[in-house]
Amino acid sequence: MLEALACLVGHWIDTKGVLLFLLVLLVTKYIRDLPSKNYPPGPFPLPFVGNMLNISIKDRIGSFKKFVETYGDVTTLDLGGGNRCVLLSGLRGFKEAFVEQSDTFTDRPSYPLNDRLSRGLVNGQHLPPQFKNDPSGLISSNGHMWRQQRRFALSTLKYFGVGKKTLETAILQESHFLCESYLAERGLPFNPEVVTNNAVANIVCTLVFGHRFKYNDHHFHHMLKCSEDVFQLPATFWGSMYNQFPTLLHYLPGRHQSAFINLGTIKQFIREEVEEHKEDRNPSNPRDYIDCYLEEIEKNQDGAAGFTEENLLYCVVDLFGAGTETTSKSLRWAMLYMAKYPDIQEKVQVEIDEVIGSARQPSMDDRAEMPYTYAVIHEIQRFGNIVPFTPPRVASKDTTVAGYLVPKGTMVLPMLKPILQDRNEYATPDQFNPGHFLDKNGRFVKKDNFIPFSIGKRMCPGEQLARMELFLFFTCLLQRFTFTPPQGWELGLEGQVGIISGPKPFKICALPR
Questions:
Q1: Interatomic CA distance for residues 399 and 401, integer angstroms
Q2: CA distances in angstroms from 176 to 212, 348, 511, listed in the order given
Q3: pLDDT value of position 469
Q4: CB-based contact 149:141 (threshold 8 Å)
Q5: SS3 464
Q6: Model pTM?
Q7: Quick one: three-class SS letters along 196-250?
Q8: Would you state the torsion angle of the CA atoms of residues 500, 502, 505, 506, taken in this order, to the nearest 10 degrees?
Q9: Number of C-alpha atoms within 13 angstroms, CB side, residue 262?
Q10: pLDDT at residue 64, rounded to an integer
Q11: Are 202 and 170 contacting, i.e. CB atoms less than 8 angstroms apart?
């Protein structure tokens, strides 16, 4: 009996000693992992969870904005387990990092969800050695592959008319179809989301596929829905959980699983288009991006550049998603603001009537004579802020930003919202005010800190296309319609949280002028 008791006591002491030893190890590791004094300031991290408890699941953007207000434009955050990142939110920091040190902050970080979406990989499975840290596509790829893919995309889009009259004609034709669709609503309340998304997507389809889709094409509607689901996944709870526990989430049900299935559906849709192009293309007369890419696959001998049919699918997914979601959501914000602020809408229509009239469609040449309309479009982008964060970067070597240490391998989260709401630049940053972009004589004023497309080598490659679409679509719609709230309704200005932040679903009336 005494021997048994002694054995139990000894075992308890041994167990207690082991637990104490493990606790000391964990505390030692926690203290060692705390950021040094040379790091940017930030909230104090808790063991294991870091600063995750400081980030609201319902309002992440609001949480990050509070970090900026408290700790400044360069802030250190711990995303759990000592996984530190730098939140970058000031124009000065953006210029220092992405322009002055562009080569240091060009690459994207590697994380499980990005690997899954950009290469179809789970924990690096079946990854060729040469692409170990280089996802596919335009948005996520790095290094030599990214430079070659971006160069090709920019030159090809330019070849097919971005910034030229040929593409302007295509946008105006699509504007006509969009206006006819609005007209068919007969001034009754309707949700403009689906048809507007269709119209913007058709511009990308014209460039990539060589043709547009009819608005009643339900298969195409499904593709657009799948694209939105995939594109927004990283900003959801399920996206965050996948990054924390990729192996576990690989087997669990959830929104991430449906997004992965939808990605496969989109790729199959694109693959069918590619196969049709392969059957009837003429190398001497390319019709679109796919034709040009297939030609590049045949003649390019640089294997590391990533010109393969599989990478073509991922590049088109990126062009399709980014090129549709951003402009479509901007136009929906535009209609919502016009219905919400009828006095501003009226001033835009007066300018349209004076410069363009009603007998012809707008032209990009009209933009210089329409400072108020141009200012309104800028304010829509500033106030709507559809991209609160640009895709993250990673430091390729030890460096400093704003005098603070940023070690090699540190992820950088570039936040645009504080820049577009800088009180030193905008008199009423929390209000919709086109006067932010006008001088006292009513002339348009360009602002250095207006960077909705970011800056530097990885700024949005579709900026010129988006600017053309926003001006022509917006001007055509305001030329033909006056937007009002449904009778007795009060329109709200709440946005949806996501990688691309659009307004919550709403209904408006499009009254023919």
A1: 7
A2: 13, 19, 16
A3: 96
A4: yes
A5: helix
A6: 0.89
A7: HHHHHHHHHHHHHCCCCCCCCCHHHHHHHHHHHHHHHHHHCHHHHHHHHCHHHHH
A8: -170
A9: 23
A10: 86
A11: no
Write out the DSSP string of 288-325: SHHHHHHHHHHH---GGG--SHHHHHHHHHHHHHHHHH
CATH class of 89-512: mainly alpha
Sign of CA dihedral 448, 451, 454, 460: negative
Q: Where are the domains of the chain?
A: 1-33, 89-512
As a dihedral over the C-alpha atoms of residue 215, residue 218, residue 220, residue 226, rounded to 10 degrees, the angle is 130
Of 236, 227, 231, 232, the C-alpha closest to 254 is 236
* DSSP per-residue codes, 28-88: HHHHHHSPPTTSPP-PPPBTTTBTGGGS-SS-HHHHHHHHHHHH-SEEEEE-STT-EEEEE
Contacts made by residues 61-69, CB under 8 angstroms, sequence distance 24+: 61/388, 61/417, 61/497, 61/501, 64/89, 64/413, 64/415, 65/415, 65/417, 65/418, 67/42, 67/43, 68/415, 68/418
Q: Is there a contact between 228 and 194 (Cβ–Cβ < 8 Å)? A: no
Structure tokens at 486: 């449904």
d(CA 508, CA 335): 8
Strand pairing of 393-394 and 411-414? antiparallel
Which one, of 338, 395, 398, 396, lies nearest residue 372 by Cα?
338
Kindly list the averaged pLDDT for each block of 10 residues, start to end, along the chain of length 513. 52 56 49 65 86 80 87 90 87 95 93 83 47 69 93 92 84 96 96 95 95 92 91 86 87 92 93 94 90 94 90 92 91 97 98 95 95 98 92 94 94 93 93 96 94 93 93 98 94 86 94 95
Count of helices and strands (H, E) across the chain: 17, 8
Contact in structure between 123 and 247 (CB atoms under 8 Å):
yes
